[in-house]
Amino acid sequence: MKILILGQGAREHAIVKALIRTGTDPKDILVAPGNKGIAQEVECESNIDITDRLAVDKLALEQGIELAIIGPEAPLVAGVSDSLRAQGVAVFGPSQVAAQLEGSKSFAKQIMSAAGVPTGMARQCKTIEEVEQAMEDFGAPYVIKADGLAAGKGVIVTEDSKAALEHAAEYMHMGILVEEFLAGQEVSLFFLSDGKSVMPLTPAQDFKRAFDNDKGPNTGGMGAYSPLPWLPETFIQEVEDTVALPTINELTRLGAPFVGLLYCGLIVTDRGIRVIEFNARFGDPETQVVLQRLITPLEALLYKAATGHLENASDAQFTQDVAVTVVLASEGYPANQAPVREVKGIKKAQRVPGVEICFGSDVGRVLSVVATGKNFKKARKRAYKALSKITLDGSHYRNDIAAKVAQ
């Protein structure tokens, strides 16, 4: 089957590696635009704007694409999946309307309210005065979210009212949601969906803050680990029953079936599971650890979801090994963009047993070191040993990824 993957980050590299690892021929994979690391494994079409529906349609038809996998959120919100489907291509990625689940925080809240999905209280604000009033009503810590796509940087959680208001002012053009603060452990859980049924993958935990001990600004994600040994055995089924299926059913009721990857960003509070956010695609860096542990052929799972036959698929199976990923970020990330600098030591890092490198971008989140092991202590040791062999001037990474579960 000829497969097109849209995207150019470490997430897409992880998808490529998982496809190959679970049986897909590398010759059948085309990535657009891809990156230098992905290009070492499969063919890439770098000269394309993946939010340009006509350009993507043309590429898919010329290449005889049978399955398109849309990695990032921007093409989904731009309606690329709808356009490809109109050309007869099976697409793993929701429609433009269904992708509003990620593209609009207020839309997501409306869906959750209608579906009875447990989430925190929120208030939509259009002026700074409304933000101030909502902050006063909800109290600190303040949770301020941009009502739109902001590359994982549109959220601030802070005790500092001045910082909260400055963040709101920066993103006011998108609209702002002020939410109640929810305390507890965060969990990322992916569900494949064919618009009628869902299939859970394995839970992961993401580390959003830039620096150790959850200090610094929010980022797109600085590391992750999977599985989560502290979760109760009933957790996945509870999320499926109370979050994933009600959300999918509500979108179908609205005439916008969700076909693709439903990313449930969750928090386990004293009052039970609550949804923090939805994404409409694989998350980065959780994908790197989730797919690293996958045994079931990924191509078959995604194709069955894309063509409405997920109910005929056996549950996804995962190895008993654990996985840890640590992101290497360029100088100044996420606040500033450093110049492109040479990364050295990749080959030495890849020689560490149980380690693979997923390449991201030239600046920002440059790469993810992914390590597996029989336990978290072993996997962490491998990940950080590999990182010690990589040099990038001014770069930084967190030293505490999965530290608590490795003790």
Describe the structure in brief:
By secondary structure, the protein is an alpha+beta fold. It has helices spanning 10-21, 53-63, 73-77, 80-86, 100-103, 105-115, 128-138, 161-170, 235-253, 286-290, 298-306, 346-350, 376-388; strands at residues 3-7, 29-33, 43-44, 67-70, 90-92, 122-125, 142-146, 155-158, 176-179, 185-194, 198-200, 205-206, 209-211, 215-218, 223-226, 259-269, 272-279, 322-329, 355-359, 365-373. Strand 19 (355-359) and strand 20 form a beta hairpin.
What value does the Rg take, in angstroms? 20 Å
Q: Name the structural class.
A: alpha+beta
Could you tell me the strand content as a percent range? Answer: 25-35%
Cα(first) to Cα(last) distance is 44 Å
What does this structure look like?
It is a single chain. 30% of the residues lie in helices and 25% in strands. With 407 residues, it is an alpha+beta fold. Among the domains are: 3-96, 3-Layer(aba) Sandwich (Rossmann fold), CATH 3.40.50; 122-179, Dna Ligase, domain 1, CATH 3.30.1490. It has a 5-stranded parallel beta sheet with strand order 3-2-1-4-5, with helices on both faces. Strand 19 (355-359) and strand 20 (365-373) form a beta hairpin. Helix 2 (53-63) packs across helix 4 and helix 7 runs antiparallel to helix 8 (161-170). The longest helix is centred in the middle third of the chain and has 19 residues, at 235-253. It starts with a strand and ends in a 19-residue tail after the last helix. The model has no long low-confidence stretch (mean pLDDT 96).
